[in-house]
From TrEMBL:
GO terms for molecular function: 2 iron, 2 sulfur cluster binding; iron ion binding. It comes from the Bacteria. Coiled coil: none annotated. It holds the Pfam family Ring_hydroxyl_A. Residues 4-89 form the Aromatic-ring-hydroxylating dioxygenase alpha subunit C-terminal domain. This is Aromatic-ring-hydroxylating dioxygenase alpha subunit C-terminal domain-containing protein.
Length: 92
């Protein structure tokens, strides 16, 4: 999945799904349909809301990860941790 924010109102999305077999199985076809019908629309709504937030006058440049210090479960601490792990790996 590639998402390219073009501006505060436009994000281009590209989904590539790779399998090792040449002929798709029924399970793989179902997965592709789930990505198209469930995952992608959810992801698209999230990206749109982030882009609107970036455009708002309330945005102060504090970063793109939403962090809730109360640990309510609606924050992106896990994503931030994962990105930090990746940064460490690629830094070395």
């Amino acid at each position: 999945i590639y998402e390219f924010p073009v501006d505060s109102e436009t994000t281009l999305q590209n989904y590539d799904i790779y399998f090792t077999n040449e002929e798709l199985t029924d399970e793989q076809k179902s997965l592709i349909e789930w990505y198209r019908d469930v995952f992608r629309p959810e992801d698209l709504r999230l990206v749109e809301s982030v882009q609107k937030g970036l455009k708002s006058r309330g945005y102060r440049g504090q970063g793109l990860i939403m962090a809730d210090s109360s640990g309510s479960g609606i924050s992106e601490h896990g994503i931030a941790h994962f990105h930090n792990l990746l940064a460490q790996v690629f830094k070395d």
